[in-house]
Amino acid sequence: MKNEASSSNNREETVVVDCGRSRSSCGYCKSSGRTSISHGLWANSITVNDYQDLLDRGWRRSGCFLYKPDMERTCCPSYTIRLKASDFVPSKDQLRVYRRLNRFLDGTLEVRNPIEHGYNTNTSKNTGSLSNHKVSSSAGNVSFLRSNKQENKAEEVIYNLSDQIDKVLHYTYIGSGELPSGIQLPKATVKKVSNAKRKLSVEGSEDLLYSSNIAFQIAATLRRAQSAEDTQQLPMSRKNAEENDLSPKSFAEKLTCSLKQLANIYGFSIKACNGHINFYSTAKNASPDAEVQNVTLHKELGSGSKSSGANKSSEHHQVQKKKLEIRLKRSSFDPEEYALYRRYQMKVHNDTPDHVTESSYRRFLVDTPLLFVSPSADGMVPPCGFGSFHQQYIIDGKLVAVGVIDILPGCLSSKYLFWDPDYAFLSLGKYSALQEIDWVKENQIYSAGLQCYYMGYYIHSCSKMRYKATYYPSELLCPLRYQWVSFHTARPLLDKKKYVILSNFASLQDVESSKPCVPPESDMELQHNVIGLEDTNDVPMDDEEMAEIESESSDDELETDTSGLASAEIDDGDLSNVLVGLRGSRLRYKELQRAFGPSEMNYLETQLRSYQRVVGVGLSERMVYSLG
């Protein structure tokens, strides 16, 4: 198979060989048996429009092999997940990835050399989290550690302060009956005060570190609730008293009195100032960064002299800016990419050298059946064209990551990403996803239909794959009716059951769509820390699994039970117009019925009916079902 199907050597058509249903080992749950069940097609060639339609029916490709999970029977139901690029709302964590990489490029992230980070990527696939990696004691590593831990510690303080305010708010007002129990008060938010605004203390020489405006939000919420009542008949004196009680200043003072206990926990001085709840340092000229250093660096540095040496080294280190290039190229074999892939698989996923061969790499990430569409086709194609591509990320001339993607009329489909383990601290998996989403937005001017970003399969039963839902607001594909359903509608359903006909709950989605489009306050429960899998959309199939798929094309015990479904939902159409390829000819099934005997026709009809169910009536009449 050639690396890119050429339109000059092939008809502009999709030609597939039906491999049928099969069992194989599961790359997600790692079960001991052959519990992964799917239907497979081998694609000799495929048009970008047909592949787009196949994606929208739950199919994916691994090289030239197309597969679709048997959702009712497989061990890990895999839901196609997508995101409308124009609706994307980045989370704080995703924005942090942008900022960290920009600081690294600008030279303001205190890192001497990526190779000096000492990341121990030789951890197992299931336990290799960033927190398990060792950090060496060089000055550059200490600087990186300080930057990272300062940021993490400050966020931890902000989270804890916000949580404590929420608890105090509940017990002080709702729990005591001072406010109606049915009223929904806003969540407290605490922010770190910038250096420019830090000297806002009304008394003493303390520095303002954190502040919350929750009192203003509470007052606004209660005023809106009160406006629904008839207050015009109240005496004026009572109105004035209520307005005073509902002032942000009054709420801030009450909450501050209840929050005094936090001073003992964090060493803060807590004061109300014109409606704001302010947290001041008790040490003169202190700052959040200095506070974080004191908490986190003692164990890492061991002594003050080492810390001093690291600081001096950092001060005298000359800032060197770096250049990031992102290059998009047609899918083809590149020795430099293969060397990076081999290193990534062995370091991050612990693959053995004999499992990371050039031939397996080519089959998985280079070979593609997609017919390339040039940008000059009709004026509605992006400058790169449609087809299969590799997106290279190059820093100062060094290849550090490669994203394998398909660009189709309706989407950019992310297939796989591999990266240099020495640059793990940059979270290149997340960064590449953000770049690919931006690419879709930028290229909509060339192709109006190019709207979505496809992230492969979302597997709710596999915690390592839940990170995909943090790209908000995402949608999951209903496995029966192939309708798109909001993830936030689907999530509570998937918490209860692995396989769900999501379109049955369309009414819940209508309720969700009426709510403001904001990202979840915390996506930590959807994140996972496994290095590598967070950047992987597809699990590669090895030669043994491919052989199993091809050798078990018929498996009677896997016939789908359709007794409980309406005939329209089973998608059994008329087989007469199924397009069949035979010895170079293209014939409809009805034209073949006289060419075979009764037993041969019965067998072929059974195969065609199974094929039509998984690809749909429309595609079965467009794609060529090859008989040789």
TrEMBL record:
Q: Where is the composition biased (Acidic residues)?
A: 548-560
Residue spans with biased composition (Low complexity)?
302-312
Q: For this UniProt entry, what's an example GO CC term?
A: cytoplasm
**Domain N-end aminoacyl transferase N-terminal span(s) in chain numbering:** 24-94
Reactions catalysed: an N-terminal L-alpha-aminoacyl-[protein] + L-arginyl-tRNA(Arg) = an N-terminal L-arginyl-L-aminoacyl-[protein] + tRNA(Arg) + H(+)
Q: Which residue intervals define the domain N-end rule aminoacyl transferase C-terminal in the entry?
A: 336-478
Show the ranges annotated as biased composition (Polar residues). Answer: 119-135
Q: Where is this region: Disordered?
A: 116-135, 228-247, 301-321, 548-569
**SUPFAM superfamilies per the UniProt record, alphabetical:** Acyl-CoA N-acyltransferases (Nat)
Q: Which Pfam families has this protein been placed in?
A: ATE_C, ATE_N
Q: Does the keyword rRNA processing apply?
A: no
Q: Which domain of life is it from?
A: Eukaryota
Q: What class of enzyme is it?
A: transferase
Listed EC numbers = 2.3.2.8
Q: Which UniProt keywords apply?
A: Acyltransferase, Transferase, Ubl conjugation pathway
Q: Which InterPro entries match?
A: Acyl_CoA_acyltransferase, Arg-tRNA-P_Trfase_1_euk, N-end_Aminoacyl_Trfase, N-end_Aminoacyl_Trfase_C, N-end_Aminoacyl_Trfase_N
Listed GO MF terms: arginyl-tRNA--protein transferase activity
Q: What does this protein do?
A: Involved in the post-translational conjugation of arginine to the N-terminal aspartate or glutamate of a protein. This arginylation is required for degradation of the protein via the ubiquitin pathway.
What family does this belong to? Belongs to the R-transferase family.
The protein here is known as Arginyl-tRNA--protein transferase
Q: Which organism is it from?
A: Hibiscus syriacus
